[in-house]
Structure prediction request, 426 residues.
Amino acid sequence: MNYPKVVYEDKRTGERYVKIKHPSGLDVLIWKMEGFSTVEALFATKYGSVNTRFKTSDSDDYIEVPEGIAHFLEHKLFENEDCDVFDLYAVTGARANAFTSFEQTAYTFSTSGDYKRPLEILLGFVQQPYFTQETVDKEQGIIAQEIKMCNDSPNRKCFFNLLKAMYKNHPVRIDIAGTVESISHINAELLYTCYNTFYNLHNMCLSIAGDVDEDEVLRICDEYLIPAENKHLQSEFTDEPYEVFQKEIRETFKVGVPLFEIGFKANGFKGKELVRMELAGLIILPILFGPVSQVYKEMLQEGLINSTFSHQIFNGEGFFSCICSGESDNPHKVLKKCIEAVENVKKNGLDPKLFEMSKKSTYGSMIKGFNNVENCASLMMGANFENVDVFTWTNELADLTIEDCNKALKTLFDTNNVSISIIDNQ
Prediction:
C-alpha cells in the first residue's frame, strides 16, 4: 500500500506517528505504541456546534441551519435501519462512545482485545446514515429533555452565560446542544444535508493509537472507506468585535455559595500562532492565579475563594479567552483582585523562577500524556484539524521564552476586556 505518508517525530523524546492520505480522501493517523494493551480509535469530522452557516462547491449561497444540529446528528448516527450500533460493539467487548464539541464530532471505541472488528464497525456505521422523520421526531423529545436537564445545572449555566457575555456574534455563545426551540426545526432532510456536507472524508480523519499494525489498519480502510469527492467546504462566521458584549451577566439558582466565571477575551488565532498563544496562556495562568501566586494565597486566606477555584484556556476558530472560575460570596471582589494581579505582573514582568517552574510543569504534563493511548489518539485528531502536528506543541513550548510570555500577557489579558458571569443563590 504505497499511499502518501508523512512521519512526525519528536526528536527530544523519540515519539512518532504517521499520517497517511488514503485515496478515499481520508487522513489516517496511526500512533503505534508497542506493548500497550489498549487501542483507542476516533473517526472524526471537523464539525461542531459553531458550524451553522456553510457552503460547498455545489452551492452558490451559504446555508444556515438550526443551532444544535451537529449534536443531534451525532445521536442519530448510532441508529441504523437494522439495529443499534452499540449492540454490534457489545459482541466485540469494545467500549464505544461519541462526543460533539464546539468544533468537532468524533465517534470512538476503546478495546483491550482485537481491534479489527471494532474498527470495521466504526468505519461502517459512520458512513451509513439512516434518518426518517419518525425517528427524528422521537429524538427531538429525547434531546429536549437533555437540554432541560443541562439548563438545571448551575455550573454549566454559569459557563455558557459567560460565553454569552463575552461573544456578541460568534456561535460559540450558544450551547452545543442548542435550545428546545432550535432543535424543533430539525428534520430528516436537514440532517442529510449536514451529513453529506460535513461527513465528507476530505473533512474527516481516522485517528488510532495503540499496538496496531499499520498495514492491517489500511487494509480495513481499503475495504470500508467509500471514496468521496472534495466539496471544498467553507464555514462562515459573522465578524466578532474585539470588545466583550456584556461586562456582567447574572442569574439565580439554588446554590449554597454563589458561582462565578471570569473571562479575559482576546482575538482569535490560527495555526502555529494559536499554538504559541495557547502555550503562553498555559504557562501564564498558573503564575497569575495558581496556588503559587500571591493573589491565590490572599484570596484563600480572606475566604474569598475555596478549593473549587480553577483556570483554563478556551479557544478555537475565531475565539480565545482565559477563564477563572469558582465559588465566592463576593465574586466582584475576586474579579477586582484578579485584575489587580494581572496589572501588577504586566508592570513588573513574569517572575523568572515561576516562569521556569510553570514551563517545566506544562512540558512534563505533555510528555506524560504521550503514555496514554486515549490522549494520543485525541491529540492526533485535534492537531490534524488545526493543520499542525502533535509535536508542534512540545517543540514550540521548548523554545518559548519569558519575553514571549510577557508579550503574550499583554495580548491575552486586557483588563478592560473582561466579562463576569455570576450565579447567585435564590
